[in-house]
Design goal:
The chain is of the alpha+beta class. The chain is built from nine helices and ten strands. Strands 2-1-6-7-8 form a five-stranded mixed sheet, sandwiched between helices. The protein has a three-stranded antiparallel sheet with strand order 5-10-9, with helices on one face. Strands 3-4 form a two-stranded antiparallel sheet. Helix 4 packs antiparallel against helix 5 and helix 6 runs antiparallel to helix 7.
Length: about 250
């Protein structure tokens, strides 16, 4: 079974959702046969290239303080064993981090990519790090199992940039407009940081359909695909972050 996770490093619910999905996977008997791939999407492609305090940036962007949202997200994260310091987080464009994640997948495999994404989330939300900084990204990549020299060379070039932009566009064409979105076997979409019990039920149901040959034959996600919790909204509601209007 293949699970594609559309995610942004700057989305707190993506971090929480991935942690909940991991817990569901640990209880799933067929976990060894599940391939997990992260797909890139940016909540805010216009985020600054130079880092600024996230609270300051979001207040300016949405025209109101984010204290209420910060409190809800921090509490939800803590319940899943994640320490988030949103007051200390830094807003910055995540394009370079996504480009590095793409390198991890295509040259080192899905397991290395998953380790890298976990480190990127932790750097952004727990440690208040600048995830566009090449030195930091190199350290994170090496700790995830990537070659240090290769990463340095890659980040210093524009390699993978055109391919990343094509992936952003492909996600939009696929109908992805909120993150996290989990796509099972290219057809069954689950939106938002669902409870682990929900993810487990979906894993079991998709496995049952695969075994029976009951999935559709076109192999694509479209408007008729099953979806859970399509909440939309202008920013990060409980469990899901909607893509900025100008990015759609």
């Amino acid at each position: 079974m293949k699970v594609e996770i559309y995610s942004d490093v700057a989305c707190p619910w993506c971090y929480i959702g991935e942690r909940r999905f991991a817990r569901a996977l640990s209880a799933f008997p067929g976990a060894a046969d599940v391939e997990i791939v992260f797909r890139p999407y940016q909540l805010d492609p216009t985020a600054p290239d130079d880092p600024v305090p996230m609270a300051q940036y979001l207040t300016k962007r949405f025209g109101r303080p984010m204290d209420g949202m910060f409190g809800r997200v921090t509490e939800a994260a803590a319940a899943d064993g994640i320490t988030m310091d949103l007051d200390g987080a830094i807003a910055v464009n995540t394009r370079t981090a996504h480009r590095l994640s793409r390198l991890a997948l295509h040259e080192y495999g899905a397991a290395v990519q998953r380790r890298l994404m976990d480190r990127l989330f932790d750097a952004y939300f727990t440690n208040g790090a600048d995830v566009s900084d090449h030195a930091l990204l190199t350290e994170l990549a090496e700790s995830a199992g990537m070659n240090r020299e290769r990463v340095q060379q890659y980040l210093a070039s524009d390699e993978g940039t055109a391919e990343l932009e094509a992936e952003f566009e492909a996600a939009r064409a696929r109908g992805i407009n909120a993150v996290p979105t989990f796509v099972f076997e290219e057809q069954f979409a689950v939106e938002g940081a669902q409870p682990a019990s929900t993810f487990l039920q979906v894993l079991e149901e998709v496995q049952r359909r695969v075994a029976k040959g009951a999935l559709s034959t076109n192999g694509t996600l479209d408007g008729s695909a099953d979806r859970i919790d399509d909440t939309g909204g202008a920013d990060c509601a409980d469990g899901i972050c909607a893509v900025a209007d100008e990015a759609r």
